[in-house]
Design goal:
Radius of gyration: 20 Å
Number of helices: 5
Strand order of the largest sheet: 1-2-3-4-5
Protein backbone atom coordinates (compact mmCIF):
# COMPACT_ATOMS: atom_id res chain seq x y z
CA UNK A 1 0.00 0.00 0.00
CA UNK A 2 1.43 3.42 -0.88
CA UNK A 3 2.79 5.71 1.76
CA UNK A 4 0.96 8.92 2.48
CA UNK A 5 2.45 11.94 0.74
CA UNK A 6 3.12 15.09 2.69
CA UNK A 7 1.01 18.14 2.09
CA UNK A 8 3.96 19.89 0.45
CA UNK A 9 4.45 17.02 -2.02
CA UNK A 10 0.76 16.93 -2.85
CA UNK A 11 0.67 20.67 -3.42
CA UNK A 12 3.60 20.42 -5.84
CA UNK A 13 1.87 17.64 -7.77
CA UNK A 14 -1.35 19.63 -7.89
CA UNK A 15 0.39 22.54 -9.60
CA UNK A 16 1.08 20.25 -12.57
CA UNK A 17 -2.52 19.35 -13.33
CA UNK A 18 -4.31 22.49 -12.08
CA UNK A 19 -3.81 24.15 -15.50
CA UNK A 20 -5.73 21.29 -17.10
CA UNK A 21 -8.72 22.09 -14.91
CA UNK A 22 -8.55 25.70 -16.02
CA UNK A 23 -8.28 24.72 -19.69
CA UNK A 24 -10.88 21.98 -19.97
CA UNK A 25 -13.51 22.85 -17.35
CA UNK A 26 -13.64 26.65 -17.17
CA UNK A 27 -16.99 26.54 -15.36
CA UNK A 28 -15.22 24.69 -12.56
CA UNK A 29 -12.60 27.40 -12.23
CA UNK A 30 -15.13 30.00 -11.12
CA UNK A 31 -16.36 27.72 -8.33
CA UNK A 32 -12.87 26.91 -7.11
CA UNK A 33 -11.86 30.57 -7.30
CA UNK A 34 -14.85 31.38 -5.10
CA UNK A 35 -13.71 28.86 -2.51
CA UNK A 36 -10.15 30.15 -2.82
CA UNK A 37 -11.16 33.75 -2.25
CA UNK A 38 -13.61 32.92 0.52
CA UNK A 39 -11.11 30.87 2.50
CA UNK A 40 -8.06 32.97 1.64
CA UNK A 41 -6.10 30.06 0.19
CA UNK A 42 -4.50 29.24 -3.14
CA UNK A 43 -6.27 27.64 -6.11
CA UNK A 44 -4.43 24.37 -5.52
CA UNK A 45 -5.15 24.39 -1.80
CA UNK A 46 -8.86 24.81 -2.50
CA UNK A 47 -8.64 21.30 -3.96
CA UNK A 48 -6.11 19.81 -1.62
CA UNK A 49 -6.38 21.11 1.93
CA UNK A 50 -5.24 17.84 3.54
CA UNK A 51 -5.90 16.66 7.10
CA UNK A 52 -4.56 14.07 9.52
CA UNK A 53 -5.65 10.63 8.38
CA UNK A 54 -7.54 9.52 11.47
CA UNK A 55 -10.12 6.83 10.60
CA UNK A 56 -9.08 6.73 6.92
CA UNK A 57 -7.09 4.05 5.07
CA UNK A 58 -3.35 4.46 4.72
CA UNK A 59 -2.61 6.37 1.54
CA UNK A 60 -5.68 8.59 1.68
CA UNK A 61 -5.23 12.33 1.52
CA UNK A 62 -8.58 14.01 1.96
CA UNK A 63 -9.93 17.45 2.65
CA UNK A 64 -10.09 18.91 6.12
CA UNK A 65 -12.89 17.16 8.06
CA UNK A 66 -14.98 20.32 8.04
CA UNK A 67 -14.07 21.47 4.53
CA UNK A 68 -17.08 21.61 2.21
CA UNK A 69 -15.20 20.51 -0.90
CA UNK A 70 -16.12 16.98 -2.07
CA UNK A 71 -12.59 15.96 -3.04
CA UNK A 72 -10.41 13.00 -2.02
CA UNK A 73 -6.97 11.79 -3.11
CA UNK A 74 -6.34 8.04 -3.08
CA UNK A 75 -4.88 5.26 -5.21
CA UNK A 76 -8.27 3.70 -5.83
CA UNK A 77 -7.22 1.47 -8.74
CA UNK A 78 -4.10 0.13 -7.00
CA UNK A 79 -1.62 1.13 -9.72
CA UNK A 80 0.75 2.81 -7.26
CA UNK A 81 -0.23 6.39 -8.16
CA UNK A 82 -2.93 8.48 -6.54
CA UNK A 83 -6.10 9.57 -8.28
CA UNK A 84 -8.11 12.71 -7.56
CA UNK A 85 -11.74 11.81 -6.89
CA UNK A 86 -14.08 14.77 -6.94
CA UNK A 87 -17.53 16.10 -7.76
CA UNK A 88 -17.43 19.08 -10.12
CA UNK A 89 -19.54 20.73 -12.80
CA UNK A 90 -19.22 20.68 -16.57
CA UNK A 91 -21.55 22.87 -18.62
CA UNK A 92 -23.74 23.25 -15.55
CA UNK A 93 -24.01 19.48 -14.99
CA UNK A 94 -22.54 17.76 -11.95
CA UNK A 95 -20.23 14.76 -12.41
CA UNK A 96 -18.25 12.43 -10.19
CA UNK A 97 -14.73 12.28 -11.64
CA UNK A 98 -11.80 9.96 -11.09
CA UNK A 99 -8.82 11.89 -12.44
CA UNK A 100 -5.27 10.77 -13.07
CA UNK A 101 -3.34 12.42 -10.25
CA UNK A 102 -0.29 13.01 -12.45
CA UNK A 103 -1.95 14.56 -15.48
CA UNK A 104 -5.49 15.51 -14.49
CA UNK A 105 -6.94 13.45 -17.35
CA UNK A 106 -10.33 11.84 -16.76
CA UNK A 107 -10.09 8.11 -16.03
CA UNK A 108 -13.77 7.64 -15.14
CA UNK A 109 -16.79 9.87 -14.82
CA UNK A 110 -20.40 9.56 -13.67
CA UNK A 111 -23.14 12.04 -14.46
CA UNK A 112 -24.60 13.14 -11.13
CA UNK A 113 -28.32 13.86 -11.25
CA UNK A 114 -29.12 13.59 -7.56
CA UNK A 115 -30.31 16.54 -5.47
CA UNK A 116 -27.78 18.40 -3.39
CA UNK A 117 -28.08 20.60 -0.33
CA UNK A 118 -27.96 23.51 -0.52
CA UNK A 119 -28.51 24.08 -4.22
CA UNK A 120 -25.34 24.24 -6.39
CA UNK A 121 -23.55 27.55 -5.98
CA UNK A 122 -25.05 28.26 -2.55
CA UNK A 123 -22.46 26.80 -0.22
CA UNK A 124 -22.87 23.18 -1.26
CA UNK A 125 -21.81 20.69 1.40
CA UNK A 126 -20.67 17.16 0.70
CA UNK A 127 -17.96 14.55 0.95
CA UNK A 128 -16.40 11.71 -0.97
CA UNK A 129 -15.09 9.14 1.50
CA UNK A 130 -12.90 6.13 0.76
CA UNK A 131 -14.52 2.99 2.18
CA UNK A 132 -14.39 -0.80 2.06
CA UNK A 133 -18.03 -1.69 1.51
CA UNK A 134 -17.37 -4.95 -0.34
CA UNK A 135 -14.80 -6.47 2.02
CA UNK A 136 -11.94 -6.31 -0.49
CA UNK A 137 -8.26 -6.68 0.30
CA UNK A 138 -7.92 -2.91 0.28
CA UNK A 139 -10.56 -0.13 0.27
CA UNK A 140 -11.81 0.52 -3.28
CA UNK A 141 -15.28 1.90 -2.70
CA UNK A 142 -16.71 5.40 -2.28
CA UNK A 143 -19.32 6.85 0.00
CA UNK A 144 -20.66 10.03 -1.58
CA UNK A 145 -22.73 12.40 0.50
CA UNK A 146 -24.66 15.48 -0.48
CA UNK A 147 -25.08 16.58 3.13
CA UNK A 148 -28.75 16.55 4.03
CA UNK A 149 -29.92 15.49 0.55
CA UNK A 150 -28.62 11.92 0.24
CA UNK A 151 -25.91 9.31 0.70
CA UNK A 152 -24.63 6.83 -1.90
CA UNK A 153 -22.30 3.84 -2.13
CA UNK A 154 -20.23 3.39 -5.31
CA UNK A 155 -17.52 1.03 -6.54
CA UNK A 156 -14.16 2.13 -7.89
CA UNK A 157 -15.71 1.85 -11.38
CA UNK A 158 -18.43 4.33 -10.34
CA UNK A 159 -21.18 1.72 -10.32
CA UNK A 160 -23.86 2.18 -7.66
CA UNK A 161 -23.95 -0.28 -4.79
CA UNK A 162 -26.84 1.49 -3.09
CA UNK A 163 -28.45 4.91 -2.76
CA UNK A 164 -30.55 6.65 -0.13
CA UNK A 165 -32.33 9.98 -0.43
CA UNK A 166 -33.11 12.13 2.56
CA UNK A 167 -36.85 11.62 2.02
CA UNK A 168 -36.49 7.94 2.96
CA UNK A 169 -35.72 8.77 6.58
CA UNK A 170 -38.41 11.30 7.43
CA UNK A 171 -41.28 13.10 5.75
CA UNK A 172 -40.87 16.42 7.54
CA UNK A 173 -37.97 17.82 5.53
CA UNK A 174 -35.64 17.48 8.51
CA UNK A 175 -31.95 16.81 7.79
CA UNK A 176 -31.49 13.45 9.51
CA UNK A 177 -28.30 12.92 7.49
CA UNK A 178 -25.22 14.70 8.82
CA UNK A 179 -22.64 17.00 7.25
CA UNK A 180 -19.58 14.86 7.97
CA UNK A 181 -20.17 11.07 8.21
CA UNK A 182 -17.65 8.37 9.09
CA UNK A 183 -17.02 4.77 8.02
CA UNK A 184 -15.61 1.84 9.99
CA UNK A 185 -16.11 -1.90 10.46
CA UNK A 186 -18.45 -2.06 13.43
CA UNK A 187 -19.33 -5.78 13.31
CA UNK A 188 -15.93 -7.27 12.36
CA UNK A 189 -17.17 -8.80 9.10
CA UNK A 190 -14.44 -7.15 7.01
CA UNK A 191 -16.86 -4.62 5.51
CA UNK A 192 -17.37 -1.06 6.71
CA UNK A 193 -20.58 0.44 7.98
CA UNK A 194 -21.54 4.09 7.46
CA UNK A 195 -22.52 6.34 10.37
CA UNK A 196 -24.32 9.39 9.02
CA UNK A 197 -25.95 11.26 11.87
CA UNK A 198 -29.34 9.82 12.69
CA UNK A 199 -28.79 6.87 10.34
CA UNK A 200 -26.48 3.84 10.51
CA UNK A 201 -26.10 1.89 7.27
CA UNK A 202 -24.67 -1.59 6.80
CA UNK A 203 -22.03 -2.10 4.10
CA UNK A 204 -24.74 -3.17 1.62
CA UNK A 205 -26.79 -0.03 2.26
CA UNK A 206 -29.29 -1.74 4.54
CA UNK A 207 -30.61 0.63 7.19
CA UNK A 208 -29.53 -0.78 10.56
CA UNK A 209 -31.26 1.93 12.54
CA UNK A 210 -32.50 5.49 12.45
CA UNK A 211 -33.09 7.82 15.33
CA UNK A 212 -35.44 10.68 16.04
CA UNK A 213 -32.82 13.36 16.56
CA UNK A 214 -35.18 15.85 18.14
CA UNK A 215 -36.24 13.28 20.72
CA UNK A 216 -32.82 11.75 21.35
CA UNK A 217 -30.31 14.63 21.06
CA UNK A 218 -32.70 17.59 20.90
CA UNK A 219 -31.49 18.88 17.56
CA UNK A 220 -32.40 18.72 13.88
CA UNK A 221 -29.13 17.23 12.64
CA UNK A 222 -25.64 16.03 13.55
CA UNK A 223 -22.74 17.96 12.07
CA UNK A 224 -19.86 15.51 12.63
CA UNK A 225 -19.46 11.82 13.49
CA UNK A 226 -16.33 9.88 14.52
CA UNK A 227 -15.91 6.14 15.13
CA UNK A 228 -13.24 4.33 17.14
CA UNK A 229 -12.47 2.12 20.11
CA UNK A 230 -13.14 5.16 22.24
CA UNK A 231 -13.54 3.50 25.63
CA UNK A 232 -10.40 1.40 25.16
CA UNK A 233 -12.29 -1.88 25.61
CA UNK A 234 -12.24 -3.85 22.33
CA UNK A 235 -14.51 -6.55 23.82
CA UNK A 236 -17.60 -4.35 23.48
CA UNK A 237 -16.87 -3.11 19.96
CA UNK A 238 -16.28 0.38 18.66
CA UNK A 239 -18.16 3.48 19.70
CA UNK A 240 -19.70 6.38 17.78
CA UNK A 241 -19.18 9.98 18.89
CA UNK A 242 -21.63 12.71 17.87
CA UNK A 243 -20.73 16.38 17.84
CA UNK A 244 -24.36 17.41 18.29
CA UNK A 245 -25.28 16.94 21.93
CA UNK A 246 -21.71 15.75 22.61
CA UNK A 247 -22.74 12.15 23.11
CA UNK A 248 -21.39 8.62 22.83
CA UNK A 249 -23.26 5.52 21.68
CA UNK A 250 -22.57 2.04 20.38
CA UNK A 251 -23.41 0.34 17.11
CA UNK A 252 -26.66 -0.98 18.63
CA UNK A 253 -28.01 2.56 19.06
CA UNK A 254 -27.49 2.49 22.82
CA UNK A 255 -26.34 5.78 24.34
CA UNK A 256 -23.62 5.67 26.98
CA UNK A 257 -23.88 9.35 27.82
CA UNK A 258 -24.93 12.77 26.54
CA UNK A 259 -23.69 16.24 27.41
CA UNK A 260 -26.55 18.19 25.89
CA UNK A 261 -26.59 20.54 28.87
CA UNK A 262 -23.11 21.78 27.94
CA UNK A 263 -23.11 21.46 24.17
CA UNK A 264 -26.22 22.71 22.38
CA UNK A 265 -25.06 22.40 18.78
CA UNK A 266 -21.66 20.79 18.59
CA UNK A 267 -19.34 20.82 15.62
CA UNK A 268 -15.87 19.51 14.82
CA UNK A 269 -15.89 16.33 16.91
CA UNK A 270 -12.34 14.97 17.25
CA UNK A 271 -10.78 11.87 18.82
CA UNK A 272 -7.34 11.95 20.41
CA UNK A 273 -5.19 10.84 23.31
CA UNK A 274 -4.24 13.82 25.44
CA UNK A 275 -4.47 12.31 28.94
CA UNK A 276 -2.26 9.30 29.64
CA UNK A 277 -4.00 8.55 32.95
CA UNK A 278 -7.54 8.57 31.51
CA UNK A 279 -8.76 5.28 29.97
CA UNK A 280 -9.59 5.22 26.29
CA UNK A 281 -9.57 8.13 23.89
CA UNK A 282 -10.62 11.69 24.56
CA UNK A 283 -13.43 13.40 22.65
CA UNK A 284 -13.22 17.08 21.73
CA UNK A 285 -16.24 19.07 20.59
CA UNK A 286 -16.71 22.72 19.66
CA UNK A 287 -20.07 24.15 20.72
CA UNK A 288 -20.93 26.76 18.11
CA UNK A 289 -23.92 28.31 19.88
CA UNK A 290 -23.82 31.93 20.95
CA UNK A 291 -24.81 30.95 24.49
CA UNK A 292 -21.54 29.19 25.18
CA UNK A 293 -19.22 28.93 22.20
CA UNK A 294 -16.62 26.85 24.00
CA UNK A 295 -14.45 23.85 23.21
CA UNK A 296 -14.82 20.86 25.53
CA UNK A 297 -12.65 17.77 26.01
CA UNK A 298 -14.52 14.78 27.43
CA UNK A 299 -13.34 11.41 28.70
CA UNK A 300 -14.77 8.21 27.25
CA UNK A 301 -17.15 8.23 30.24
CA UNK A 302 -18.43 11.72 29.47
CA UNK A 303 -16.48 13.55 32.17
CA UNK A 304 -15.38 17.10 31.38
CA UNK A 305 -11.59 17.07 31.34
CA UNK A 306 -11.04 20.52 29.90
CA UNK A 307 -12.91 23.62 28.78
CA UNK A 308 -11.21 25.98 26.34
CA UNK A 309 -12.20 29.18 24.56
CA UNK A 310 -13.91 28.69 21.21
CA UNK A 311 -11.85 27.79 18.20
CA UNK A 312 -11.79 25.14 15.50
CA UNK A 313 -10.01 22.39 17.48
CA UNK A 314 -7.49 19.73 16.51
CA UNK A 315 -5.66 17.11 18.54
CA UNK A 316 -1.99 16.91 17.53
CA UNK A 317 1.36 15.81 18.97
CA UNK A 318 3.35 19.05 19.36
CA UNK A 319 6.19 17.66 21.48
CA UNK A 320 6.55 14.13 20.06
CA UNK A 321 5.84 12.27 23.31
CA UNK A 322 2.96 10.25 21.83
CA UNK A 323 0.27 12.25 23.63
CA UNK A 324 -1.81 14.95 22.00
CA UNK A 325 -1.81 18.67 22.56
CA UNK A 326 -4.65 20.88 21.30
CA UNK A 327 -4.71 23.59 18.65
CA UNK A 328 -7.60 26.05 18.80
CA UNK A 329 -7.15 28.46 15.93
CA UNK A 330 -3.84 30.18 16.67
CA UNK A 331 -3.55 29.10 20.32
CA UNK A 332 -1.80 25.87 21.30
CA UNK A 333 -2.70 24.25 24.63
CA UNK A 334 -1.44 21.34 26.65
CA UNK A 335 -3.80 18.71 28.08
CA UNK A 336 -4.44 20.88 31.15
CA UNK A 337 -5.34 23.95 29.11
CA UNK A 338 -2.09 25.81 29.70
CA UNK A 339 -1.08 27.92 26.71
CA UNK A 340 2.02 26.56 25.02
CA UNK A 341 2.21 29.09 22.21
CA UNK A 342 0.33 31.88 20.48
CA UNK A 343 1.02 31.66 16.77
CA UNK A 344 1.54 35.12 15.20
CA UNK A 345 -0.48 34.23 12.12
CA UNK A 346 -2.35 37.50 11.78
CA UNK A 347 0.80 39.57 12.22
CA UNK A 348 2.67 37.61 9.55
CA UNK A 349 -0.29 37.73 7.16
CA UNK A 350 -0.56 41.50 7.61
CA UNK A 351 3.18 42.00 7.14
CA UNK A 352 3.01 40.17 3.80
CA UNK A 353 -0.12 41.98 2.62
CA UNK A 354 -2.61 39.15 3.24
CA UNK A 355 -5.92 39.39 5.04
CA UNK A 356 -6.24 37.16 8.08
CA UNK A 357 -9.08 34.66 7.41
CA UNK A 358 -11.56 35.25 10.22
CA UNK A 359 -13.75 32.24 9.43
CA UNK A 360 -15.33 29.48 11.51
CA UNK A 361 -12.99 26.94 9.92
CA UNK A 362 -9.70 28.70 9.22
CA UNK A 363 -7.25 27.22 6.72
CA UNK A 364 -4.94 25.39 9.11
CA UNK A 365 -4.01 21.75 9.50
CA UNK A 366 -1.67 19.75 11.72
CA UNK A 367 0.70 17.14 10.32
CA UNK A 368 4.22 15.78 10.65
CA UNK A 369 5.68 17.41 7.55
CA UNK A 370 9.28 17.31 8.77
CA UNK A 371 9.32 13.63 9.70
CA UNK A 372 10.85 13.88 13.15
CA UNK A 373 8.10 12.37 15.34
CA UNK A 374 6.10 15.45 16.18
CA UNK A 375 3.51 17.45 14.31
CA UNK A 376 3.63 20.96 12.97
CA UNK A 377 0.84 23.52 12.48
CA UNK A 378 0.37 24.71 8.90
CA UNK A 379 -1.56 27.83 7.93
CA UNK A 380 -2.08 28.96 4.35
CA UNK A 381 -3.44 31.97 2.51
CA UNK A 382 -2.98 32.56 -1.19
CA UNK A 383 0.60 31.61 -2.03
CA UNK A 384 1.74 32.15 1.58
CA UNK A 385 2.18 28.96 3.63
CA UNK A 386 3.24 29.18 7.28
CA UNK A 387 4.68 26.13 9.04
CA UNK A 388 5.07 26.47 12.81
CA UNK A 389 7.49 24.04 14.43
CA UNK A 390 8.13 23.34 18.09
CA UNK A 391 11.36 25.21 18.85
CA UNK A 392 12.42 22.75 21.57
CA UNK A 393 15.20 20.24 20.75
CA UNK A 394 14.00 17.38 18.58
CA UNK A 395 13.05 14.24 20.50
CA UNK A 396 14.38 10.82 19.43
CA UNK A 397 12.42 9.44 16.50
CA UNK A 398 9.80 6.97 17.65
CA UNK A 399 8.11 4.18 15.72
Amino acid sequence: MPETATRREVLERTKAFAPLFRQHVPELVEEIEGVKDGAGISFEEALLLASPLQNYPQGVIRTHPECQMPTTIYDIDGDGANEVICRWYRDGQAFIYILDGRTGSIKRELRWDYPMWPEPGHGEVGHIIIANLRGLERPRDLVVTTAHAGIFGLTDELNFLWAHGQEEFNDEGLPWLCHHPCVDDLDDDGCEEVACGGVLLDHDGKVLWTMDLWAEVDDSHVDSVMIGDIDGDPSNGKEIAFSTGACLLNAKHEFYWKQRGLVLHGQSVRLGKSHADVPGLQIMVLDCTSRSPDTYVFSAKGEVLLKLPPGCPEFFDWDGDGLDEIACHTTLHDANGRILAELPVEEIYTAHGYEYPKTSYPPFITADVIGEAREEVIWSSGDLILIFENAAPHPPHRN
